[in-house]
Amino acid sequence: MQRTLISLSCVAWLTSCSTISTPSADLPDVEVGDGYGVKRQAPIPPHVEVPQPRRGALTEREMNMARTAWTYFENNYQPTTGLVNAVDGYPSTTLWDTASYLAGMVTARELGIIQKQTFDERMVRFIKTLNTMDLYRGEVPNKAYNTVTAAKVNYANQPGEIGYSALDIGRFLTWLWIIKERYPEHAPGIDAGILRWNFCHVVDEFGTMFGALAGPGEPTEYLQEGRLGYEEYAAKGFQLWGFHTERASKPEPYDVINMYGYDIPYDSRDPRKLVAHSYVVTESYVLDGIEFGWDQPWDTSSEDTDFSQKWVADFAQRIYAVQEARYMDTGIITARTEHQLDKAPYFVYDTIYTDGYAWNTISEKGEYLPQYAAVALKGALGMWVLWDTPYTDIVFEHIADLYNPEKGFYEGIYENGTGLIETYTSNNNGIMMASLLYKVQGELAVEHPWRPPSRWEAVLNDEFSPHLQQCLPSRHNCSTCR
Amino acid sequence: MTEEELEWASIAWQYIDQNTDPKTGLVGGVNGYPTATMGNVAEYLASLHVAYQLGLVDHLAFDGRLSAVLHFLNTMDLFDNRVPNRVYHTQTTDMVNYANEPGEIGWSGLEVGRLLIWLNVFKRYYPPYGEYIDKALLRWDFCALLTPDGEIQSGYRQDNTIQITQDGRLGYEEYAAYGYSLWGFNPMKADVLEPYQVFYIYGMPVLVDGRDPRVDGVPNPLVSTPFFDMGLEFNWDRWDDVSSGDKTHTRLDLARQSEQLYRIQEARWRQDAIHTARAEHILSGSPWFLYDAIWAQGSLFASQTDEGDFYDNKALLSVKAAFLMWALWDTEYTDELMSLISPLHDPEKGWFEGRFEQSAGYEMALSLPTNATVLKALLYKQQGKLLGAPYSSARLEVVRANEFELPGKCHPIQLP
Fold it and tell me: E strand or H helix at A448, and its extent?
């Protein structure tokens, strides 16, 4: 058509005809579409009916990832206490980070990265610390400890008492329980350590969990601890040891906000009044999936697709789906959770929703820091293993090689393209290892096949045991029992 | 209308009577304080319309009052000689700043939008005055009030520059958009509910403004009053809908949002036993003005200032909101609300702002918005939708249709 028009114009403009037709005789004509901007069609990812978890043996690449993560725990191991630094090179830790270390250590042993001898050496040293460390005012472990001396410290790693965290204790109890069930040879030491604790202020008679706060020389202030997701997850640790956590285990009070068509649940306690942010992040749901398979803690079946705690499974699906939907809508690879930073303020809640805003990134004090939004590696790998979808394939490739072979995996990669969060943590590497172990074994908190006896159970069943004064779970009519 | 309701109306009219400046005929927005915004002029016009319809003023008084307002609108100084200033002194008709000292501080497209609604109502009900209303409109430069893509704009003078921003958040924006639509403008971006987020309160979905106050610095509390005002004045219909019945709402999006806002407040009473009727209101002490929100920055039932500070303990059971809810929803709950609200007046001075949610104590400040709303709600009860039948053309239409005398100033051209 184009050609005909040109030749027609030749007839009309005979004088200029030769100058136009000469080059067009050798070169191809201008074609329809030359110079058009590309209008890309909408993405069509392969359809996934119901996302299933990824299960099966690890590939060589995945094994190498587990080995890389384990280097963190080799570098930061403190032989004097059996503890591991929470952040690379900084000799301080919390119970939460220690639980992540235990997760890493169990994974390393199950995958054959370390031998039983190494595991036992580390475990025995750790259990000694558990049985000798100073507790916060004689109750339960302090929020932070020096990993070289096992002394109670404040957040500046100076000797001192700052209180305790029920969430940290809950997750720690889960991992001690997992170790007891898998390796009953370590159970006596673990039980002895926990029998030193006094739970009177930690869980109340209605099953609400409390944390403690105190400045130097001040009386302790006990505050309800835990918001939707973390609260119920941490409560499962207490449940495994027999405590009743009725109120903590209820999802209420919560509300929902609709994002990308998914109703996303969030804790509806007012952050202005209670000074605790009600953040919606991936981590608590991923941990619940990996460790419990979104089952009730008393559910001993390890079926992958039968979730006995239905609402947790339901909420977890939404948390996953909304992040996938954000990727589909904006092209931003999304795996949101709390994470460390390599600069001030060193820690952010990088959320799906918090304090009134979707995709909010805030510091502990509530400052808005959208520039620190990142794909946190632990959240990303957890999503990859729990949801086998084309989206998590991309997430996996985004993060799977972000490591320093000498130090372990980086904390994360910024969403806005400003590079890596160049910090290495026990929590990140531990959760990544546990995610890989989940691929091999399924949910991690499973009972020993024949339920060996334990000292803890014996104490609970002994109505004359002096330990019952420590508000241990009730098997009797006992005024101090929970 | 019952005897008692007529009494309520005349109490509300007391506020206007007491606060009318004898020289200029203008009414101040807050009792005893001689300033008025364009929103206040709209509220005064609404009150005058109701008073005339209910027979509280005779034709002589009505004409005197209306003519004074029209004279003001046609002669007042304009900001930058383009648009009405944010505030005017009611005794001198000078442009003033918020401290009531002479000064040009900027304009608010949102407040002009509110005034446009009531000028249009007057043109519908009282056609002989249409000419003078049109002349006032022809003075204003709509290029400053509305962007070409249909956003409402405001300006602030800062030193020697004028800062121009988009004006209005969810509810307020759509309400003001009605005003522009009624006069043939096309506020297409202001008129839609986007951008919004969906929250569930007491299990009921409700839309919340989707703009981020941390980015633009503008608080976006969800307040129910503009949605309820749209019910009184437009029956939640399209601006050009004159035929659908009372039960049909041709702006279903607005009708649903309003219904939810009512049901959430009722649910707070049913489930948590807290009487709730929330509005923006003044206070007789610091912080002087509050938005009692249904939702604000992630918190339910929070009260927020213009700057975004929270004062939850200063929330009111608002007279304005209670009357709106009572007029629009004939329910057990609104009857209960009225039993708590009906004593909140001074027969000589008008209706108070409300009673404190926290303590039952009275907030005895008096304002034009509250008293105007009481009057509008009472007339709605008698007549239904307030907007009125469409008018025949007047001066504005003639000018817009004359190709040799086009008004410019971003007026639409309506050549025959």
Answer: none
CA dist A82 and A134 (Å) reads 15
> Both tokens of residue B296?
């604000």
CA distance B388 to A46: 56
Structure tokens at A174: 């889960």
Q: First-to-last CA distance in chain A? A: 88
Cβ-count burial B341-378 (b if 16+ within 10 Å, e if not): bbebbeeebbbbbbbbbeeeebbebbbbbbbbbbbbbb
Instruction: Tell me the per-residue pLDDT of B289-325, one tens digit each, with 9 for 90 and over.
Output: 999 999 998 889 999 999 889 999 999 999 999 999 9
ipTM confidence score: 0.74
Write out chain B residues lying below 8 Å of A258, CB-based: 197-200, 205
Query: Measured between CB atoms, does B200 come within 8 Å of chain A?
Result: yes
pLDDT above 70: residue B35: yes
Q: Where are the alpha helices (DSSP H) in A56-153?
A: 60-75, 95-110, 116-132
* A29, HSE (Cβ side, Cα atoms, 13 Å): 11
Say whether pLDDT at A8 is over 80.
no
Beta strands A152-153 and A221-224 are unpaired
B212 near A CB under 8 A: yes
B213: nearest CA in chain A? Answer: A357
Question: Does B299 contact A at CB distance below 8 Å?
Answer: yes
Question: Is A241:A194 a contact under the CB 8 Å cutoff?
Answer: yes
pLDDT at A11: 46
DSSP state, residue A90: B
Query: Helical H runs in B95-140?
Result: 109-125, 130-139
Report CB contact under 8 Å: B200, A368.
no
CA distance B294 to chain A (A): 13
For residues A66-81, average pLDDT: 97
The CA distance from A66 to A72, in Å, is: 10
